[in-house]
Specification:
7 helices, single chain, alpha+beta, Immunoglobulin-like, C8orf32 fold, 5-stranded antiparallel β-sheet, 340 residues, 2 domains, 18 strands, globular
Length: 340
């Protein structure tokens, strides 16, 4: 009798263990790919002019959202820091003021984060197009995202291009795919010469080349010209297949909004560089990135004395009310193993 009870308990234990394992396997199967890493954001404000009275520094700070989890590990600053948020896009930042710095002084800053980034996917074009059957409605909270930016107009050359490329298409997703395909086919990733990197939509359409800002600015402009909300995201790329290393610069991508679907990402410049993934990067972005801010023409908090920022991914510094660009910057990542 005791042996029978023991056998029954063992069978129950192993059945429960097997079911738990199957549940974990199923959860793992449906969890999106992710990367967890430490990200170091270091910079120095150098050669501060003799007699300077006030140095103001703003640094973008990544936020936790549905696509990434951010934990601040360390913050090193030569003066008291203040965490602030601007009201238009909700970007977070660290603000620092240095009063009466020493002559020919420098100021070192270091921020380190642990970030887990998830793949962000809404599905492929066919799936998205099937869902896109409702009338186009622009929520009142998104009116800014159908308006022009300084370098992304919605009239003139961009409006004419929108009519040419997307005018015959019906539905938000079909129009977005037409704009995506046009830029993927007609532009090339090319950072030679000058003019690239500003995200000037008209320049990009005329030059038909540039970096990620130049690919995505005309995309945003064409959609906004057609009344479709679109936004600009920027952060840093993580090289695929590497566990650590320096990151030489930023990376950006775009999103458009469709009723019944929500915000949908595109990454045309990455598709151009990995042409076998052109279908994937319409509707999805991989986990090889970290987002630091969104939007263009950004007014910081507290407000800067200089003009609005074209985009916000690097530190912005003012000395006695004027923009100051003598900075040394270094960005680095290191993968965090699951055991850690």
């Amino acid at each position: 009798m005791k042996l029978r009870i023991l056998s029954s308990l063992l069978l129950l234990f192993f059945s429960s263990y097997q079911l738990a394992g199957q549940a974990a396997s199923t959860a793992q199967k449906f969890s999106p790919p992710s990367r967890t890493f430490r990200f170091s954001y270091n910079f120095t404000v150098k050669d501060i002019p003799s007699g300077a009275k006030r140095v103001r520094v703003w640094v973008p700070v990544p936020q936790t959202d549905q696509h990434q989890t951010v934990r601040v590990l360390t913050v090193k600053s030569p003066a008291k820091t203040q965490m602030t948020k601007e009201s238009e896009y909700g970007n977070r930042m660290m603000y620092v003021e240095i009063q009466n710095p020493a002559a020919a002084a420098k100021a070192d800053f270091s921020l380190e984060y642990e970030i887990t980034r998830l793949e962000y996917s809404r599905g492929d074009y066919a799936q998205l197009e099937r869902k896109d059957r409702s009338p186009r409605i622009v929520p009142a909270s998104m009116t800014r995202l159908v308006a022009p930016d300084s370098l992304i107009p919605t009239d003139g050359r961009i409006k004419a291009l929108a009519l040419e490329v997307t005018g015959s298409k019906s539905g938000t997703v079909a129009k977005a795919k037409a704009a995506y395909d046009y830029l993927f086919t007609n532009m090339k990733y090319d950072k030679t010469g000058s003019g690239w990197g500003r995200g000037d939509a008209v320049w990009a359409c005329d030059s038909k080349r540039g970096n990620c800002t130049d690919f995505h600015s005309p995309f945003i402009g064409m959609l906004r010209a057609d009344g479709i909300p679109a936004r600009f995201d920027i952060g840093f790329p993580l090289p695929e297949g590497k566990n650590s290393g320096d990151i030489p610069g930023y990376h950006c991508w775009a999103e458009f909004y469709a009723s019944k679907i929500g915000w949908t990402p595109v990454d045309i410049s990455e598709a151009w560089k990995a042409k076998q993934k052109d279908d994937y990067f319409f509707g999805s972005v991989d986990a090889n990135r970290a987002q630091f801010s969104t939007g263009r023409d950004i007014t910081l908090s507290p407000k800067q004395d200089g003009p609005t920022l074209n985009y916000f991914v690097y530190p912005y510094v003012e000395v006695d009310g004027k923009p100051y660009e003598k900075l040394d910057k270094q960005f680095r990542f290191e993968e965090v193993k699951s055991s850690e």
